[in-house]
Amino acid sequence: MRPPRERLGLACGIAGPVVFLVLYSVAMAGDDDYVFFQNYLSDLGVGEAAWAFNSAVILAGLLCLPFILFGIRPNLDGGVMATLGVVAATAGCAFLVLVGVYTEDYDPAHGIVSLAFFGSMLAALGFWSWSLHFSHSMGRAATEVTQGAFAIGLIVAIFGFNPRTETVAVLLIVVWAVSLAILLLRQEDAHPPVK
To answer: Are 138 and 12 in contact (CB under 8 A)?
Structure first.
């Protein structure tokens, strides 16, 4: 059985995306000007229900930290690429919180932290894809989910930054986090924590 701190971290990997999706939905429902797939998500951060969207990204970023540090990290092989992934994802969590602090009203800061969030998370997925390819420390399914998310993320990045690609990238991160957390929680044999 997994240690309580690890289980809590993995639970945060589910809670963060769920909290984000609920508050994002509230923000969409409360903003008559927002059109899904036609507006940037951050347009909600300065709209009629800005409180909901900004709370969504701040809380998701805060819940992401224990997911990365206590849920994912203990299941990695501890190599350089795995560690770089942890560093990149931790930075991504911080940038996500800043997306809710530096809304579109704070240009160019908002654009910088938004792009930094997506870049950090794509880098983390890339580092972990490399690490997991050789170690399979999280198991085959978790490796494939991470590598699939990285591959799709690269394809989305090729198409550039627009409302559609941004939405797909966010939903990709949400699906990856929940899938990975569930897969790791369902594993019967926990891997020993990396020292």
So the answer is: no
